[in-house]
Amino acid sequence: MTRKGSIQVTSKKYCFGLLSSRMLIFSICLMRMTMKFPQRILKKAHQKWIKSLQKKKNKTFMIHAEEIQSVPRNFMPEVFTLEAWDGLKPFVEDLEQRAVESEQDFRQWLADRNEVTVVFEEIARWKYIHTSLDTKDEVAKKEREFIIAEIRPKWAQYSHTLNQKFNELQGRFPLNDDACNNYIHAVSTDIEMFRDENVSLGTQIQLKAREYDAISGNWSVDIDGETKTLQQAKSYLESDDRSIREKVWRSIAEARYQDNETLDKLYSELADMRQKVAGNAGFENFRDYKHKAMHRTSWPVQACYDYADAVEKHVMPIVNAIQAQRKQDLGYGALRPWDTEIDSGGNPPLKPFSTTAEFVERGVASLKDVDPFFGECISKMDTMGRLDLESRLGKAPGGYNMPLPETGIPFVFMNHACLEYDVRVLVHEAGHAVHSFLSHELSHDWMKDTPSEVAELASMSMELFTMEHWEHFYPNPDDLKRAKRNHLEGLLTTLPAVARIDSFQHWIYTNPGHSVQERHAAWLDLTRRFTSHVFDTSGLEKFDAVNYQRVLHIYHIPFYYIEYGLAQLGAIAMWRNYCQDPKKTIEQYKNALALGYTKDVPSIYQAAGIQFDFSDRYVKELASFVYDQWKRLV
To answer: CATH number, domain at 326?
Structure first.
């Protein structure tokens, strides 16, 4: 089946097909749109849900992947086609104009608004997925641009109007439910920060940022007469032939560097547009605007600087010690960037899997060993065609788990090349997917919309939980030991990498109007702070100066990065608990994820059995724990 220029979604049936042997395409279930409106039934599912969680407290939340059900449609038609704004308009106008005279009316209004939201968001997110699968697909490109340029601006305007109505109704009929507190605060903040002029500007920014995908999606190198994606080329960096590693590393660096001026120009344009958004909303800079817009109420901006200082003080000495050991083991006079992926003991590259089918099978087995439900989730996604895992030309870079709020079954996207690193990516995204499953039963989508500090705790903890069961990928004990050691090294280097990228964005947006040369200098200063001084990068300065261009986050989702560091600390604490009491830790993990965003961030961390902390003392304590574990594997 082929995809048309519009998409039609039913609430009960989804069809899937393959446009090519490796590309998932969401096919269209064509049915005539009906406009039947069943009698509205009042639902208080969110109250019932929260009460059930309160009763369980220390009891494990249990659900089976097969039990996940789509959000029922009681307000919108069973079949809905989105070809123009007029398709959504009657429903949002109903919500805008409806008389609400009682608490019962208010709760029904909330349920109906939620239904419109999840139906629309599921459609919009599939558009995003399609363009990720093939950046050259012009039909997919036009469909997503239609959502961004035609639908999103009107959706934003109506959302603001409905937020204002919510605020007024909440004043008349208070939602005396702690599970609603985060949403009430978020709505108030969004109303305060909303500006009409930022709606069209936001659309321009989204369209402009997509240029990054078109550029990076076409990066490739020629190796032995074959064209390879950069992800595929990275496998050669594990070669025991140093000359091959250097040649491939330089080829990858040159492939990116050829677009450096274009990407710097794009970043400058995006930074200027974002600064204008902040100014329109009355903020001095985009950094302060974004911190508030992201509803970061659990910690101040200063915490980012404190995190960076603590990592530089306590983690960088460990990273330097590990790299010094690597240099000594390899016997090199100088450790170069192309020496990072090889085994310091001279062993051949690890080969965790050979095919995508093997990859999924072994991933599911590792997840099931942690908890059977985790494996069930990925198996169900695989059965439904909601995994697209292998690298190919034209596919967008990176990896993600895309929650699909109506059906409740997410989509995982990544670019594997049968490498050791790919195992970590899969189980990371599996953690996000499990989070989607566990929180799906919450009655409103805003209860599931967790901040990144919580979302990344789910994914990074899963990496470490499954690490204890990677024998499915590495049946040889020595290989398993190597994989664990490498992962812990990567974990330790993640902490300063996060500090570097987050600190860079702070500099970018608190220095509006800076030159490209000043930007390069700022990045190099941070590189000296947060990368190991053991590495010799002489002669590679031009690549170092623009290395931030490989990070898609700074183009698409600015300031979404510090969460990786904060959540990594939480994940280390979860793993430490898991080593002592696996059963209790997984029970707490599941209960915490099932809360969605019905509690504040510190309370969710507390439910997981850990603390939300990134103080100097805590960073030192956790980094030391990881280093001790690493030394046991050497």
So the answer is: 1.10.1370.30
Phi, psi (5° rounding) for residue 561? -160, -40
CB within 8 Å of 597: residues ≥ 6 apart? 182, 183, 446, 447, 448, 449, 450, 451, 454, 604
Q: What does the alpha-carbon distance between residue 136 and residue 150 come to, in Å, rounded to a whole number?
A: 21
Quote the pTM value.
0.86
What Å distances lie between residue 604 and 48, 63, 265, 610, CA to CA?
A: 19, 19, 41, 9
Q: How far apart, in whole angstroms, are the C-alpha atoms of residue 626 and residue 632?
A: 10
Same domain, 165 and 247: no
Longest dimension (CA), the chain: 78
Judgement on whether residues 483 and 594 belong to the same structural domain of the protein: yes
Decide which of 158, 176, 194 is a domain's last residue: 176
Cα–Cα distance for residue pair 433/72, rounded to 1 Å: 21
Contact 119, 76 (CB under 8 A): yes
In this structure, is residue 143 part of a structural domain? yes
- Collapsing DSSP states into helix, strand and coil, what is residue 21? coil
Q: Which domain holds residue 332?
A: 229-348+474-633
Total tally of structural domains belonging to the chain: 3
Burial class (CB in 10 A: 0-12, 13-18, 19+), 517: exposed
- For the stretch 413-471, pLDDT in tens is 999 999 999 999 999 999 999 999 999 999 999 999 999 999 999 999 999 999 999 99
- For residue 478, the number of C-alpha atoms closer than 13 Å in the C-beta half-sphere is 6
3-state secondary structure 152-219: HHHHHHHHHHHHHHHHHHHHHCCCCCHHHHHHHHHHHHHHHHCCHHHHHHHHHHHHHHHHHHHHHCCC
